[in-house]
Every structure is written in structure tokens, then in C-alpha cells.
Write a structure and sequence with these properties.
- It is a single chain.
- With about 140 residues, the chain is mostly helical.
- The chain has one domain.
- The chain has four helices and no strands.
- α1 runs antiparallel to α2 and α1 packs antiparallel against α3.
- The N and C termini lie close together (about 10 Å).
Length: about 140
């Protein structure tokens, strides 16, 4: 049987600790997904503003200058939050909450389990797989 030292818990680490680190890792995964949605929000908001600008130009070209001017002045290039475009929201999130979350999750793993990742999942895989069956190998 192949040994997977990268996913073997260090001696003396109890089940509750592995479960706790697994939950912290799962929480980080949720933060990563939230970050992806934030970047999608950033991209979609930018696309909306650029597309809106094209629509405003077309309204003006079609002879609706007053309405085009109103939309241009009130909405095109507007902040999505007080004083912020979406790139500023993304930067603040990345540099603050996200960076701190990643740093502290890593610190917990480094301090307790020699930096090893996904110990909870690796042990779950070992428990759930059918030993000796193709497609159920421990390691690649």
C-alpha cells in the first residue's frame, strides 16, 4: 500500500483537532467561493457599466439626447458603494478579511499538524474507499 505522508496525521493529534482543522478548512473553501462571487460581481458590474455607456451613446445617436444625458450623468461610471467602484471593494476584501483568513488557517495547520492539508478528508477517503478495488486507490 502506498504511504501518503502528506495526508497522514502527526502522532499525538486527536480526532477533535483534525475535525476542527477540517471545519476551518471548509470555512476557507466557502470564503474562496465567496471571493469568486465577489470577482464575478466586479466583472459583471464593469460589463454593465460599459454596456450601459454604449446604450447611452446609441440613445443620443437616435435623437434622445436629454434622456441619454440624464442616464450618463446619474448612472454611467457611478460608484456601486459609497465612494467605491468594485475594484476597490475587491481590493479591500483581498487585503483584509481574505488575507487574514488564509494566514490564520495556515497558521493553525502549521502549528498543529506540520502544515498538512485536508487531513479530515484524507481520513474520510481512507475510511470510505473499497480497498483493493480499481478507482479506489489511496494515492495516484
Amino acid at each position: 500500500m502506498a504511504i501518503d505522508e502528506e495526508h497522514t496525521r502527526p502522532a499525538g493529534v486527536d480526532d477533535l483537532t483534525v475535525e476542527a482543522l477540517g471545519n476551518i478548512s471548509e470555512a476557507l473553501e466557502a470564503v474562496e467561493i465567496a471571493r469568486g462571487h465577489l470577482y464575478a460581481f466586479h466583472r459583471l458590474s464593469g460589463t454593465a457599466d460599459l454596456t450601459l455607456g454604449k446604450g447611452v451613446d446609441q440613445l443620443r445617436e437616435a435623437g434622445h439626447a436629454a434622456l441619454a444625458d440624464r442616464i450618463q450623468e446619474e448612472l454611467v461610471g457611478r460608484n456601486v458603494l459609497q465612494g467605491r467602484w468594485t475594484f476597490q471593494v475587491v481590493e479591500e476584501y483581498d487585503d483584509g478579511y481574505y488575507a487574514d483568513f488564509k494566514r490564520l488557517e495556515r497558521a493553525a495547520r502549521d502549528e498543529i499538524v506540520e502544515g498538512k492539508r485536508h487531513l479530515y478528508e484524507a481520513e474520510m477517503k481512507e475510511d470510505r474507499r473499497t480497498h483493493g478495488r480499481p478507482g479506489h486507490e489511496r494515492t495516484p
